[in-house]
Predict the 3D structure of the following.
Amino acid sequence: MNLRLLPLTLVISAAFAGSVQAQNLMSLFETARGYDATYKAAQYQYTANLSKGEQAKAVLLPTVGLSANLNKSEVDLVAASQTVNSQSRAATLSASQPLYRPANTATYQQGMRQLELASIQLKAAEQDLMVRLSQAYFDVLISRESLDFVKAQKLAVAEQLAAAKRNFEVGTSTITDSREAQARYDLVLAQEIAADNDLRIKRLALNQLVGLTNIEPKSLSRTANLSAPESSSIDQWVKQSSDFNPSVLQSRASLDIAKLETTKAEAGNKPTLDLVAGYTPTRYKNGKGINTSQVDTNTSSLTLALNMPLFAGYAIQNRIKETVALEDKARADLDAAERNVAQATRTAFFGLQSGIGQVNALQAAEASSQSALDANKLGYQVGVRINIDVLNSQSQLFQTKRDLAKARYDVLLGQLKLRQAAGTLNESDLSSINALLNP
């Protein structure tokens, strides 16, 4: 993606930010990639790392330099009582090509690993953005549906309160029924205020992530099929995470770079061989200098320069010890990354399986709660149930509905987190979830 186009993207996004926008997950993801500061920082770091990697190639290429000097001298010849002035101009064009420099080769290989590391880091940032955006998106939907359920519950309790008051007036129920219904109604009002405030906060978080306002996310279709992971084997997911998780790949690249740093340190004991070429034209005023031997010349040279280090005050030996210790640290960091990622993958896998089980259980509980409410309403009408029984059934039903809505979105987020832990999360996974939203 060309980073120079980002300002234009932001201008276009801002132009449409004033009105309510019903947007799906994919469209907001494209907007977030051009706005989210964390992801943009990762993009700039990626560009910087690309340039840093390219710099490593320079150590294998020749270096060419040009130098020039102008010299003016004045000599007093005492015996001849004469002063002689001389002026010379010289320029040197030199070139040097490394023939054998082990440290340069290791530096070049480190640069290539830096390029790989840059790609891994950008991929990790993109996966993180997908999960953060989905979390914020689903948080808004969960809060919005919770508010809708609270409003529906308030309406149901209000109807029950009105019925209790009518029954009290005609003498078929006690004042206790009215007061219980009033207490439950007041409680639901407090819940509505809290739910409305929670929705405002969740909307602000989503707006901040994508740089838009008045976003209206599309909710999950009631007929959406929430599937289990493609592979039911946790070992396969753990293996994938070991092969593809960005944290593990970064640690492996860092270990390779640390090994090459040791190679560079060991190269301090090895000789170097360079091919050096030069060309120097020298010109004097009037074609000659003070001495008769100083005349215009053109000098060419071709040199093989061998350098053999003999003793550097134990600096090289101690540098090797330092890099070996850092190599061991990088190896330990890799072990820690592999263990942490494996644990995170197992946690995500079991969390997703548990979430799907909760959805199935809550769907059954919703049907049961609805049946219980219907039965209590009928019992209240015929006098075998009291008002509090109906109120409790209503509360249980709407609480189950809220839990079910949250569990469904948690399953979607769990699918993304499992793929993120395995290192395989990409846009197609986000698109698959986007297809489950209402059109």
